[in-house]
Amino acid sequence: MVVPNLNQQFARSAHTFDYKVNMNLLDMNGRHAVITGGATGLGYAIAQRMIGSGARVTLWDRDTQAVAAAADKLKRTRAGAVVASIAVDVASHEAVADATKQTLAMADVDALVNSAGVTGPNAKLWKYPVDAWRQVFDVDVHGLFYCCREFSPHMRARDYGRIVNIASVAGKDGNPNASAYSASKAAVIGLTKSLGKELADTGVRVNSVTPAAVKTPIFDQMTPEHIQFMLSKIPMGRFGLVEEVASMVTWLCTEECSFSTGAVFDLSGGRSTY
Fold it and tell me: 249 near 46, Cβ under 8 Å?
């Protein structure tokens, strides 16, 4: 497969779909959503879509200045938008537990989107830095577990909730030179299936999405060669857009998502074969 120039490809992707014209209305009126990794990238785009759907949003991110700035910017996107921000490192259980208390003191939480994540370096497994491996799992798996663990009792008590975990097609396929990221996202898929079954007899739904590569600041953590490799695997011949991910995630956080739980929703441009 001939891989196009990245800059040309990004420009082509940006004109693939006009969301201002074609965005469907999703009902999040009166709902409160917590979005981890909400200062940039997918988390920020998801927050935008939810606010546009009437939700109140609380952003969690470890970058104190960036998350506060993101919240201020989001407040200007819709008249009357209610947006809060909390600086929290999800890799710390103590920090997550404290942030959960702060968030619930503001309002009950109807939806949790676990978007915080890191890719780690690109390297062969036998050369993979041990500290980097731990960091990827601390954020992508342990951090997600802490968030689900703290909010699940609250949602169970109210008999309503929506949890959406951002996984990756790498968790299905296993990308070479990205063993930590691939393994961590496979763990996210497994955790989603387990928690979905555990909460299936309640009004809480737990699902995950598996995007292929989407152009976000997380690309800065990858080599150009790895980015080109990911693009070469996508039959549509382009990267995903953050708006496309935000649309699916927001729907999964609505009441309309009522009979899907422990499920994995594909966003891979045709890459996934199962």
Answer: yes
Three-state helix/strand/coil letters over 194-211 = HHHHHCCCCCEEEEEEEE
> Is 44 considered catalytic here?
no
Q: Distances from the Cα of 47 to the Cαs of 53, 59, 156, 199, in angstroms?
A: 10, 8, 24, 25
Nearest one of 130, 125, 126 to 178, comparing CA atoms: 125
Sheet holding 204-211, edge to edge: 83-87, 56-61, 32-36, 111-114, 161-166, 204-211, 263-267
pTM of the model: 0.89
What confidence score (pLDDT) does residue 273 get? 67
- The class of domain 6-14+26-267 in CATH terms is alpha beta
Do residues 129 and 175 make contact, with C-beta atoms less than 8 angstroms apart?
no
CA-to-CA separations, 141 to 68, 99, 152, 176, in angstroms, rounded: 25, 18, 16, 19
21 pLDDT tier (thresholds 50, 70, 90):
very low
Residue 262 tokens read as 């422990």
Summary mean pLDDT of the chain: 91
User: For 81-108, how does the pLDDT look when each residue is reduced to its tens digit (9 = 90+)?
Assistant: 999 999 999 999 999 999 999 999 999 9
pLDDT of residue 221: 76
Domain residue extents for the chain: 6-14+26-267
3-class secondary structure per residue, 22-77:
HCCCCCCCCCEEEEECCCCHHHHHHHHHHHHCCCEEEEEECCHHHHHHHHHHHHCC
Tens-place pLDDT, residues 107-126: 999 999 999 999 999 999 99
Residue in 44, 146, 181, 274 annotated catalytic:
181
